[in-house]
Each structure stands twice: as C-alpha cells, then as structure tokens.
C-alpha cells in the first residue's frame, strides 16, 4: 500500500512542476555549434584533392575537376561536386580531412523533401547553403596540418 | 469430449514490446507457452562484411549504428582493438574524455532500458521521466561531438573533439541532479506493490546455467557471479576509480532491475571522481601514423557495455582494411537463453522476461 | 420531475421524454469529448509535458478532430469474421452503458426515473457489456483478439461479484434499492453522514472493482497494448472502434455518478453552512474528483497480471466484501435497532 501511495505522490508533484515541452515548429530548435547538419561547400577553396570522396564511408561524394583557367596556377579547380544525400550519414569525416576547409557542416537538419531528386545536392545548392555554418571545424585528418593521421 | 488445440502465435516482427524488429514464434496452450522459437535477422545490415572494404576510420560510424542506444562503447571497442594491435599510446586527457563519455552513455542506456521496461509492464509515466533525464545527457553529447545518437566521436589514438568550455561544469552539475531523480524513480516504481508482484520470481536461472549460456552484464551478475570487465580486466582508466559492482542473489527479473538501477548510481560515482581528476590540459590525439595499418595478425578485446560484454576480433593482413572484423555482441548471446526461460510461462511473463534481458535488435542482428 | 412522471402517458409526454433523452445524449457526448481531452491533458501534466495544445485554442478541439478522423476511415470487416456478431458487438457495448444512466439522480428534483429497484437495474444492465467484449473478441477471427476477449470475460465476470456485494452494505444502511432514497439517507449536513466513512471497507472494495469493470489501468488487460496489441478491438477500425471507446467513457460517467450517489452523498454539501451552493454543483464537483482520481491512477500504476487479477478478485476482495456485509449487519442490529 505504501509503495502505491508514494507513486501517486510523485505523479501529483509532477503535475505542479514546470513542463519541458518546447514549441518546436513555432520556435526554432537551436543546435549547438558543433552540430553536424548538411554540408556547405565553398568552391573557391577547393583544391580537388579527392580526400573527401575517398574517406566517405558510404561513397556519397562524387566530384570532378578541370584545369585552372588561370595559366599561372597549377592547382585544379572544381567543376562538379555532388553529394547524394540519400546515403550521406552526416558523419563529418569529409570535413575532417579537407585541408582547406572547403567543405564544412552547417546546423541545418530539417531536410525532408517531397521527391528523391531534391535529395541529390549539387555544388550550387551546397554553396548557396551558407547560413548557420559551423565555426569549430577541427579538421584533424587533413594532411596539410601534418598532425595526427 | 473437449478437444483442445495448441495455438501458434507470432509475437511478430512488428510489436510494441519486442524492442525492435524481432520475432518470437510461440506455441500456446491456453495462456501457457509450451515452446518458443526466436527468429532474428530482420535488421541485418551487413556491417561486418562492409567493413572488409573500409579503413578503420571509416568503420567507426558503422559501429555507432550497431547498438544505437549505447554508441560510445561500440566506438571504444573498435578503436581499442586497433590501438592494441598497433601498440599506440593514448594521451591521458583523451582517455579521461573517453571514460567520462562511456559512463554517461551507460547512464543514458540504462535510462532507456528502465523507461521502456516499465512501458512494457504497463506504466506509462516512467518512460517520459526517463527520457526527460536522458535528454540532458544527449544534449551534453550534442555539444561535445555534434550528434545526438550516432556520435562518431572516438578515433584511433584519441578522440576527435576536446571538451568545449563549460562542458565539464555541466557534467559536474548533472551528477547530483541525476542522483535526486533516482530517488524519485524509486518512489514512483521500485516500491510499487503491483510492480513487485509482476516482477519478483520471474525468469529465474542459476549461476551455472548463466555461465553455460555465456551470459554477461547484469544477466550474469544477477545470479551472484562477480564478473565485471571494468574490475576483472581493467581497460582504459578504470583501475584508478573506486566503484562497487552490484550483485544479485536470486537470478530473477527483480534482481536484474535492481542491479541496473544500482549501476546507474555507481556510474555517477565514477563520473564524480573522473570529473574531479580531469587533467587541466593535454592532447586529445596521440602520435598516430597517417594511414592506420595494423601489422598482420589478430587481436580480440572485450569491454563492458551496458548490455554485457562486447568484444571485437580483428584479423589483419597488414593492409589499411581489416581482413575480417567480427563483433561479439552481448544482446545476441544473451538471447540464447530465451527459449529455455520461456517454457511454462504465460504470455505476460514473456514480455517481462524479454524486457529484462535488455536487448537492442541493432546489436542482435549487426 | 416526479409529478411529471406520475401523470398519465400521452403522445405529448412521449415526445417530451424523447427530447429529454436526446438532450441528455448530447450532454453525455459532450462529457465524453472533454473527458478524453482532460485525460490527455492531466496525464500529460503528470509526465512533465503539456497535453494537446495545437488543435483549436488550447487544444480544445483535439477530440473533435480525432472523432472526425475515425468517422471518415474505411470500415473494414475481416473476410472470415462472423459478420453479424462483428457488427453487433460495438452496439451491444454501448447500449447498456447509456441505458444505466437513467436511474442516476442529480438533485432533489432532477432525475429521469425513480425506480424502486434502481441499483439492481444498474448492476444487471452493466453485466451485458462483458458479453459485448467477448463477442467482439470472438467475431474478429484473430488470435490476439480472442486472447483479449477471453481475458476480459474472466475479468469482468469475476469482478462483478465483489462490486455488487460491496454495495450491499450501503443498501443495508439505507434500507432501500432506490438511489434517491439512498442519497436522502446520507442527509444530515456534515460529510461524516456520507456513506464513505462508515462504509470505508466497502468503499475501497467498490473502487477497486469499479476500476476493473471499466477495463482501465491497472486492470486493462483486455486491451493491454504492449502485449496483445489492442486486444479485443484490434480488428475494429473507424466508427466501430469509436463506439468501443465511447462506451468505455460513458461507463466512466456511469461509475463516477454511481460512486457519488452511493458513497459521497450525492448533492449534499460537506457542511451545513455551505448549502447556499446549489446541489447540482456539489454533485458535479464530487463527480469531477472521482474522474480525476481515475486519470491519476492511470498515469501512475503498471498493469497487473491475469492470474494475480483473478487471485485478487476471488481471494481478497470477495472475503473483504462479505466481511463488510456482516459488520454492517451487526452494527445495524446493535446500534440502530436496539
């Protein structure tokens, strides 16, 4: 009997406590800075080293480069850059190995679409997606840093 | 003359209480089970086969998704196996971060178990209480590594991120909050006479049976066998902290329930000591070669995950990808005792016993 | 009301009675709508969350939206199900629930029927709902539904016995089966004249048996969601399912009203100086307290097992109810008559 009454007391006290409901669609849900949302791509910084495509566990990044329009520079320039968002698992290994931080994550996570075609993100969409970009990138896997890995 | 027949019932892949897509075919005589056959494989995703093509850093996100309720311990077992094969040193701060994160994960996993177990038994409120508290842990992880469930946090040789400023204080504040909540949970459920009548004396087995079937975790300790890998074969920095290993005596569901709640308390105790001893500065990544290529050979390591003993066996032929990667998953092994335990029980006790074993189907099927 | 009921029956009288019944049906449906809404709100508050709050202002139209959704759903009948029984079961569950409401007196003058055997009428009709659940479970041609139906047959029949015997104490004290006379017998101004204190044992047995009759947690095995995936109404969809839910909440109304009338003094205030408040408000207040108590129990307790339920009903509640009858009889013999 005692246990039952204690249980009733706990729920009655909970009735008077502050509620933890957030009004989600009306008030946006703010994610911390390190949150791994969909990527943002900066084509000017990309040196077409292919590290991101090699490290991706699900092989969702495909990219092609073209020779530099500026005849002085040797570095290739990015031509197409696609992320197949149906299989991207948002693991952020691609941002970890990019030496120039050309690909970074943002905090956007509301990504449902009505058709599968919209889930195939190309370079234009990714470079337009430049709000809520993550500040702290920690690309420890980048070869140029010369550090671990 | 009355003729009775056996009823063949499918506690089907889609069922609110089987903790995932898991099927049990039961033969019923009225309400008593005469035979139970578990059928698994509905969530098989081929992790071990896919790993033969990926290098170790790429396998880490896959391990998150095996036992998705306690992803940090899965990450750890893989990186620890590779570090053991290659003989790598992990800096102290990184090891502390790993340990703190694993113990927080143990608390979160036991909260999920508690909430869903009571939901199966019929009480709807403890589920929300447990998830409200788990939300705080998941928010801590979100700030630390950017994801709420599939963390991809540990790397071979250390961890990816250092703790952001203010994070340790939040962990320190969480510990007394959670201890207070545990008292509230005890008031709400542990003394409840209806709950005790449902759970005492159900699913009993003795120590010899448990060892024969290879059970581990709370399923083994409820019979009184004192075997916890954090104490018996210390890994990481567990030898530096003092904590008790709760043991049961009777081997029934009630003992498993009490042991898991006590394990939350002991995890909070370890966390308190770890946050106190946390080094003020240090590296988060050790000296690791650019390409992770373990020497040819094999290694097997095992650690204590919230569900039991998880092990990782790597066979390497000297390349960046493993030749064969095998995980010894605790939920898979713990399920083997289910057909034996269920004979002679009623349908209601089937749900109670299955919940008490604490399986995650992502781990059963890998 | 009494004078109207004692007149000769004319066609005009039939029309008036029919219209009153329709008005009452609308009131009961309004109660059901807002009882479901408040149940979800109260259980939400007890779980640190707000309940429904998006559909309509403060979520007040949530149940209306749910019922509308149920009405426009496809009406499926499984091919091998027994058609007649399948269609009959929800109606058979609802009709007794609504018919028993006729004997409840709300105030001195506001009642629908003044049966001299009102309590017996109530208990007799509420037994038919057990039959409806068995029919629903059997006619669905589904093993889960069958298990749920069999469980509920055992449960509802075995808890009717302590329910009725616990009421016998009240009947002995009041000397009549007429519900109005039972409420009159609790007059006297103060709350200790109500039957709840002298009959505390009977009240405890009555509350437990009533929660079991309503198939609510902790006794909701027939529809145990986590084991039998909705039990006896698993094959019902759309409007027929709504009928089962409706009959459950109308029964909540009936049991709460009966508890108020039998044990809590009906329309009498708890103290004489409070009798400026009209009786109907006291009735509603006590009624609301009982309904809140039912919601509170639902949010807190786990489910009890079928064999423990049987053991509780026959081995614990029945002897206690019989003991209550004997004690009441001895008390009446020694203190009231002698």
Could you walk me through the main structural features you see in this protein, from its secondary elements to its overall organization?
The complex is a heterotrimer of chains A (149), B (366) and C (338). In chain A, 21% of the residues lie in helices and 15% in strands. Chain A is an alpha+beta fold and 149 residues long. Mean pLDDT of chain A is 85; it is low at 145-149. Chain B has a single domain (45-365), classed as Orthogonal Bundle (Cytochrome-c3 Hydrogenase, chain B), CATH 1.10.645.10. Chain B has a three-stranded antiparallel β-sheet with strand order 1-2-3. In chain B, strands 6-7-8 form a three-stranded antiparallel β-sheet. A two-stranded antiparallel ribbon of chain B has the order 4-5. In chain B, strand 7 (308-316) and strand 8 (324-328) form a beta hairpin. In chain B, helix 2 runs antiparallel to helix 3 (71-86), helix 4 (92-121) packs antiparallel against helix 11 and helix 4 packs antiparallel against helix 14. The longest helix of chain B is centred in the first third of the chain and has 30 residues, at 92-121. Chain C has 338 residues and is mainly α. Chain C has 13 helices and no strands. Chain C has helices spanning 2-5, 11-46, 62-71, 83-99, 118-126, 128-139, 143-174, 179-184, 200-213, 225-228, 238-262, 279-300, 306-337. The chains are: A alpha+beta (149), B alpha+beta (366), C mainly alpha (338). At the A-B interface, helix 1 of A face helix 2, helix 5, helix 6 and helix 7 of B.
Question: Biggest β-sheet of chain B, characterized?
Answer: 3 strands, antiparallel
Q: What percent of residues of chain C are in strands?
A: under 5%
Mean pLDDT of chain C: 86
Report the strand count of chain B: 8
Principal-axis shape of chain C equals globular
Oligomer: heterotrimer
CATH H-level homologous superfamily name of chain B: Cytochrome-c3 Hydrogenase, chain B
Please tally the helical runs of chain B, counting DSSP H or I stretches of 4 or more residues.
15
Global outline of chain B: globular
Give the biggest sheet of chain C.
none
What is the topology, as strand order, of the major beta sheet of chain B?
Answer: 1-2-3
- Separation of termini of chain C? 37 Å
Radius of gyration of chain C: 21 Å
Class from helix and strand fractions of chain C:
mainly alpha
């Amino acid at each position: 009997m005692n246990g039952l009454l204690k249980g009733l007391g706990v729920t009655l006290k909970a009735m008077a406590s502050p509620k933890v409901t957030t009004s989600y669609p009306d008030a946006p849900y703010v994610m911390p800075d390190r949150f791994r949302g969909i990527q943002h791509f900066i084509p000017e910084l990309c040196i077409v080293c292919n590290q991101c495509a090699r490290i991706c566990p699900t092989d969702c990044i495909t990219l092609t480069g073209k020779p530099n329009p500026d005849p002085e520079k040797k570095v290739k320039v990015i031509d197409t850059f696609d992320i197949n968002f149906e299989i991207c698992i948002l693991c952020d290994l691609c941002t970890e190995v990019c030496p120039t931080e050309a690909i970074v994550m943002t905090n956007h996570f509301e990504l449902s679409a009505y058709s599968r075609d919209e889930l195939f993100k190309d370079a234009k969409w990714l470079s337009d997606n430049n709000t809520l970009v993550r500040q702290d990138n920690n690309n420890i896997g980048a070869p140029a840093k010369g550090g671990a890995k | 003359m009355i003729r009775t027949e056996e009823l063949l019932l499918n506690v089907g892949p889609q069922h609110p209480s089987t903790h995932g897509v898991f099927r049990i075919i039961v033969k019923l005589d009225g309400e008593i089970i005469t035979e139970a056959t578990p059928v698994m494989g509905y969530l098989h995703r081929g992790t071990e086969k896919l790993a033969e093509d990926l290098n170790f850093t790429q396998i880490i996100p896959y391990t998150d998704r095996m036992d998705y309720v306690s992803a940090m311990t899965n990450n750890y077992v893989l990186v620890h196996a590779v570090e053991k094969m290659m003989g790598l040193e992990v800096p102290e701060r990184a090891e502390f971060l790993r340990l703190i994160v694993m113990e927080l994960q143990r608390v979160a996993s036991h909260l999920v178990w508690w909430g869903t177990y009571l939901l199966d038994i019929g009480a709807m409120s403890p589920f929300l209480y447990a998830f409200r508290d788990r939300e705080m842990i998941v928010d801590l992880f979100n700030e630390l590594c950017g994801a709420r469930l599939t963390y991809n946090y540990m790397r071979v040789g250390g961890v990816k991120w250092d703790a952001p400023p203010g994070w340790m204080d939040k962990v320190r504040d969480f510990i007394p909050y959670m201890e207070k909540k545990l008292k509230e949970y005890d008031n709400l459920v542990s003394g409840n006479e209806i709950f005790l009548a449902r759970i005492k004396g159900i699913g009993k087995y003795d120590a010899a049976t448990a060892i024969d079937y290879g059970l581990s975790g709370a399923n083994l300790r409820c019979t009184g066998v004192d075997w916890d890998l954090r104490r018996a074969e210390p890994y990481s920095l567990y030898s530096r902290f003092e904590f008790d290993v709760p043991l049961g005596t009777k081997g029934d569901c009630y003992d498993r329930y009490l042991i898991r709640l006590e394990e939350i308390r002991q995890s909070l105790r370890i966390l308190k000591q770890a946050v106190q001893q946390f080094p003020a500065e240090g590296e988060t990544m050790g000296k690791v070669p650019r390409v992770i290529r373990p020497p040819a050979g094999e290694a097997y390591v095992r650690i204590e995950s919230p569900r039991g003993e998880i092990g990782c066996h790597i066979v390497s032929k000297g390349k960046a990808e493993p030749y064969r990667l095998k995980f010894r998953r605790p939920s898979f092994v713990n399920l083997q005792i289910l057909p034996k335990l269920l004979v002679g029980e009623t349908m209601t006790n089937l749900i109670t016993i299955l919940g008490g074993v604490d399986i995650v189907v992502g781990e059963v099927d890998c | 009301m009494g004078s109207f009921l004692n007149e000769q029956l004319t066609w005009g009288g039939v029309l008036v009675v029919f219209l009153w019944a329709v008005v009452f049906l609308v009131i009961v449906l309004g109660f059901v709508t807002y009882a479901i809404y408040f149940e979800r709100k109260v259980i939400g508050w007890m779980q640190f969350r707000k309940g429904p709050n998006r559909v309509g202002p403060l979520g007040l139209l949530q149940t209306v939206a749910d019922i509308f959704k149920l009405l426009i759903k496809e009406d499926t009948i499984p091919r091998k199900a027994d058609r007649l029984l399948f269609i009959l079961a929800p109606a058979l569950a609802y009709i007794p629930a609504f018919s028993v409401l006729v004997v409840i007196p709300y105030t001195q003058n506001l009642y629908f029927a003044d049966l001299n055997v009102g309590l017996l009428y109530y208990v007799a009709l509420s037994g038919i709902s057990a039959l409806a659940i068995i029919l629903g479970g059997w006619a669905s041609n589904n093993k889960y539904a069958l298990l749920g139906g069999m469980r509920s047959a055992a449960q509802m029949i075995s808890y009717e016995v302590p329910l009725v015997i616990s009421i016998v104490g009240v009947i002995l004290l009041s000397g009549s089966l007429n519900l109005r006379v039972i409420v009159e017998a609790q007059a006297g101004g103060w709350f200790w004249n109500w039957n709840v204190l002298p009959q505390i044992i009977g009240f405890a047995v009555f509350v437990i048996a009533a929660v079991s009759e309503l198939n609510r947690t902790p006794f909701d095995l027939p529809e145990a969601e986590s084991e039998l995936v909705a039990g006896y109404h698993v094959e019902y969809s759309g409007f027929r399912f709504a009928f089962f839910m409706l009959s459950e909440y109308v029964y909540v109304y009936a049991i709460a009203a009966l508890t108020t009338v039998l044990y809590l003094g009906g329309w009498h205030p708890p103290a004489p100086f409070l009798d400026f408040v009209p009786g109907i408000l006291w009735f509603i207040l006590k009624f609301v307290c009982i309904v809140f108590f039912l919601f509170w129990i639902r949010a807190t307790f786990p489910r009890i097992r079928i064999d423990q339920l049987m053991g509780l009903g026959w081995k614990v509640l029945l002897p206690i109810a019989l003991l209550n009858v004997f004690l009441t009889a001895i008390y009446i013999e020694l203190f009231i008559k002698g």
